[in-house]
Design brief:
- By secondary structure, the chain is α/β, with parallel strands linked by helices.
- It folds into two domains: about 150 residues, Alpha-Beta Complex (Aspartate Aminotransferase, domain 1), CATH 3.90.1150; about 260 residues, Aspartate Aminotransferase, domain 2 (3-Layer(aba) Sandwich).
- The chain is about 35% helix and about 15% strand.
- It has 13 helices and 15 strands.
- A hairpin with a 2-residue loop joins strand 1 and strand 2.
- The longest helix has 20 residues.
- The chain is globular and about 65 Å long.
- Bound molecules: pyridoxal-5'-phosphate.
- The site of pyridoxal-5'-phosphate has 15 residues, from helix 4.
Amino acid sequence: MTHVFRRVLTRELPRAVHAEGVWITDAEGRRYLDGAGGAIVSGVGHGDPALLGAMARQAARVQYVHGTMFTTDALEAYAEDVATVLPMDGAMIYPVSGGSEAVETALKLARTYHLARGEEERHVVIGRRQSYHGNTLGALDVGGKDQLKGPYLPWLGRFRHTETPYEYRCAMPGHPGGCAAAYAEALEALILDIGPERVAAFIAEPIGGATLAATVPPPGYWTAVVEVCRRYGVLVIADEVMTGFGRTGRWFGVDHFDVRPDILTAGKGSTSGYFPFGFAAASAEVYAPVKPGGFVHGFTWSHNGIGAAVAHATLRRLREGDLVGQAATKGERLREELRAALAENPIVGDVRGIGLMVGIELVTDRATKAPFPRSEQVTERVLAAARERGLLLYSSTGHVDGRDGDLVMFGPPFVISEEEIGLAVERARDAIDEVAGVRAG
Ligand SMILES: Cc1ncc(COP(=O)(O)O)c(C=O)c1O
């Protein structure tokens, strides 16, 4: 009997009692390799003394003060330091408790910026189909995963959506040539259809994450869409909740594309999962017009000092251990090993990604790329088979047509060793082989 309204209602969950490095131990003494860092959260790894120490020290100094009444040394020091790695000029951070709150903050900030400049008509935000920005109503609405929206459709529909790059199944005419320009044209056509004077912002994940499993856009994509946004005075919001803080082998996903967004959102890896934290960052240019009139927004837990202290310790740890560089090289290794191990597996259509953000797409037929019917529960079976072998993976389903589609994701902590990468690959291979009906060798 439990009084916990759990995330999973269809099966019993093990009780986690200990976590260290890339390993989580349950109450039965079973050890799981955290192959996805939870939900692509943990970069530094579990049980890091530097992060735990920073949390304890700040808690001993000041646990909680309201963001309208005080600032803290912890928050001021973090903001100063993180501004040096953020891909924006004069970044100003608005700390919150997680990714969805960061996205809500970014949306409101974009609106507030335009109001402050006297552009009252600008309120439409453009997101992308098959994207994910969170589960609160604004973030859900601007995201593009229809299955998550279904029950709540009567409350949604304020925002518009354009195409998302997805190289494995790209439907653009002329693919692989000219796709970047085609996506930019589609975005421009949508802006013109809405009326440029009504469009406030364009929000996108630099690299497709929770819904498309580590989809890297084609060369030139980001430059082309940013150029369209600039032409029409549309703010660019980079949602770095999953891609931020080293996950892709650079500090931020947009760093791969030399993009400097107007607003950036962070969550997950900002504290490596040690504390519920995130932020929306505004460039100096966005912040300046907003400052005089203020920002009608706020949460009880925003601007939290303990969160800032943990985030700062995370930043230092990433920097000092060159963990960002390690995410790049280890990610390369993980993809190479997965490709080799899964080369003969008939249901593995694609192994993709960047840094330690890695996706595997499962299909019934490699040649046609036909997805499995959802009724076969392929992703769920692979995750269960991996769990049985002591490997935790992340997943997404339904991306192909809103119902079918099977994606499995790796996103381990950056401290994963070569031996642990090998073990994760072996366990994943055996799990996928089992589901594919191939005898494990
Ligand atoms: C790109 C992106 N934005 C926003 C979110 C929402 O973050 P949270 O679950 O912390 O609210 C996620 C979560 O997966 C995400 O991947």
